[in-house]
Amino acid sequence: MTATRDAPPAAPAVRRTPSRRTRIPLPLLLPAALGLLFLVLPLGGLLVRTPWSTLPQRLTEPGALTALRLSLQTATLATGLCLLLGVPLAWLLARVEFPGRRIVRALVTVPLVLPPVVGGVALLLVFGRRGLLGGWLDATFGITLPFTTAGVVLAEAFVAMPFLVIAVEGALRAADPRYEEAAATLGAGRWTTFTRVTLPLVAPGLAAGAVLCWARALGEFGATITFAGNYPGRTQTMPLAVYLALETDLEAAIVLSVVLLAVSVTILAALRDRWISAP
Amino acid sequence: MRRARVRATVATALAVAVAASGCGGGDSPGGGGSGTSGTVTVFAAASLTESFTRIGDDFEAANPGTTVVFNFGGSSGLATQINEGAPADVFAAAAPRNMATVTDAGNADGTPSVFARNQLVIAVARGNPRGIRGLADLTRPGTAVAVCAEQVPCGAAARTALDAASVDLTPVTLEQDVKGALAKVRLGEVDAALVYRTDAAAADDDVSAVEFPESARAVNDYPIVALADAPNPAGARAFVAYVRSDAGRAVLTGAGFQTP
Fold first, then answer.
1. What residue stretch is flagged as signal peptide (chain B) (predicted)?
2. Is the dihedral of CA A161, A162, A167, A172 positive or negative?
3. Which of B174, B179, B190 should we substitute to test contact with A (largest number of A Cβ atoms within 10 Å)?
4. In chain A, whose CA is at the least distance from the CA of B176?
């Protein structure tokens, strides 16, 4: 980048820590500062353009509140679903030796790198009306998932679950297995050991994973709009509302974005000290 | 395919005339003869995807050294992007209202002109297995319908048509653009969608189009304009002129548009 030619004005600031002398090398500090700026600047731009004076009345518009409520509900339900299915999966990956474990682990992380829209299409091909399972669900139980709130939860869980599984698996691997062995020698069954020893042991990792999972579900867009469509009150979550507002009313889109940002930051900040801080 | 027989003719002379009449300068010093060169960035309504892709190919053939890059999407979103400073040369919207967003902000170079008109049809699965004959049939129980959100032109047109027919329809989804609505029909997730005639025609392997009388009450005018901040002003004007030329019109009518 030619921009590094403009570096000299910033240089004096680099040398102004005489006492500590940590000597951060410039080739690291500059890109680090740029990286920080790159991540923070767009959020700042959002706040600069926010119409603060009309913010309260815009927030109380029924459309915004409906979308926010739906987002919070679906993200929480999706996190619940991920906990229910993801924790046992993480335990399996961390504690049980079985053939093909590495392949299973790779498969679990696929939704992490898959474009969410592709995830949405894949969900349609399985759970859609003509899908592999969807047709059977419809014919047998009369359940159709696309265009329903349940469909939103499913789409969010699909995209968010890898975050939980990876976090919990990491915590399980880091936990000392001797506690579990000790419990077993004292006569505890496998289920008792899991619920009374293992789970409390990995609680911080579990919570961190759940928060990440929830935040990812809250921001889910691509899979949701592809699989669950967009209908206010039923499947229109905040990110979808932002995207649609962008079509007509930039200010409304900014307001909704700021709300989403505030919710995410609040949750992350509130939980940081308790659970997410590195041990 | 009907469209296949439409073969564009070279319109170099036209491009030269337009470039000559246009403002000189700009940051792309066009190379001699054709008057256009470099990249022309066109923001166009999603419903123009097939016809403009084709027109773009023809335009490139007619102007060697010129590349046309498209950004297809919902007209209103594109208008927002342009007003927020996206580097576009040409804007083609599916409704005057979205064009007005850009012209009101002073971002158009000249006055937009209507180059095509489009009407809604009901897109259904090929062969129309549910026997849908008109808008009223869409309200039958168990019929899942996708409609565009009212914020985008195809949704506004759908609203007008449904009101004209006094049909109270609750769709299962309000799609962000017409291609999204059409995709739901192609995937079999909905039984019907209100889309443009041209979109149904472009997907005639998968869907059938059901015409309905009320669509005449909701005809969409498509305006096009070169943009004030176009990085390639000569290319922008040449492309607009090409779209309105006989060659461009032939592609558009071949795709099912009416041309003025």
1. 1-19
2. positive
3. B174
4. A244
A228 vs B contacts (CB less than 8 Å): 173
CB-closest option in B77, B172, B175 to A246? B77
- Contact between A229 and B175 using a beta-carbon 8 Å cutoff: yes
Range of the domain at B90: 3-117+221-254
Residue B259 lies in a domain: no
Instruction: Note the pTM of the prediction, 2 decimals.
Output: 0.76
Q: Cβ–Cβ of A247/B172 closer than 8 Å?
A: no
**Helix, strand, or coil here: A120?**
helix
CA distances from A164 to A92, A117, A210, B79 (A): 14, 20, 6, 39
- B177 and B63 co-located in one domain: no
Q: Tell me how close the Cα of A82 comes to any Cα of chain B, in angstroms.
A: 26
Beta-carbon count within 10 A of B159 CB: 17
Q: Supply A187's token pair.
A: 């006569």
**Which residues of A are less than 8 Å from B95 in CB distance?**
none
Which element (helix H / strand E) includes B111?
A: strand B108-118
- For residue A195, how far is the Cα from the chain centroid? 25
Please give the single-letter amino acid code of residue A188: A
Positive or negative, the Cα torsion across B26, B29, B30, B36? Answer: negative
Binding residues of B for molybdate: 47, 75, 178, 196
Count Cβ–Cβ pairs < 8 Å, chain A vs chain B.
Answer: 58
% of residues, chain B, pLDDT over 70: 87
| Pairing status of strand B38-45 against strand B90-92 | parallel
Q: What are the tens digits of pLDDT across the range A52-87?
A: 888 888 888 778 889 999 999 999 999 999 999 999
Q: Where do the domains of chain A lie?
A: 62-276
Which phi and psi (to 5°) does residue B67 adopt? -120, 135
CATH class of A62-276: mainly alpha
Burial code (b: 16+ CB inside 10 Å, e: under 16) for A222-236 equals bbbbbbbbbbbebbb
